[in-house]
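Entry 12.
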Amino acid sequence: MGSKYLFPYKSRFVGIGLILLHIPIRAIWEYLYPGLGEHHLPVKPGDSVLFTNQHLFSITSAILMLVGLFLIAFSKEKIEDEQIAQLRLDSLRWSIYLNYLILLLSLIFTNGIDFIDILRLNLWVPLLFFIIRFRWVLFRLNRSLTEEKN
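Predicted 3D structure (tokens):
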């Protein structure tokens, strides 16, 4: 993955800020409106669930999380070399493999509302897997380089 397609290094901190903003907002919403789940149905047939406060909140919440994870995942490192690019590509490949394995198992063993939740989670789970794997491999690489120096 060429570094020209990556966001600047400081974008990672904006992403962390968006995720940290998302968490308390979501917690406060759940505290204030505990009975309103994601699957709140309209009162009368024909009533729309689009563009209600709940719907707009869900969209905004998902966008905050998605953009935050995206900025964290695709921001440059301080030193972006070929090895980092290879680790990034390898981590992306493993995150897609793992995500589709989980998606396949979910398709087999769930249905109805649970299935919709799985598809919603599929928005950011690949990014989470990528970030976790990339950071872990980078941590191990840095640790092994530090041990070699000593």
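Annotation: The helical segments are 11-32, 53-73, 82-109, 113-121, 125-149. The mean pLDDT is 85.
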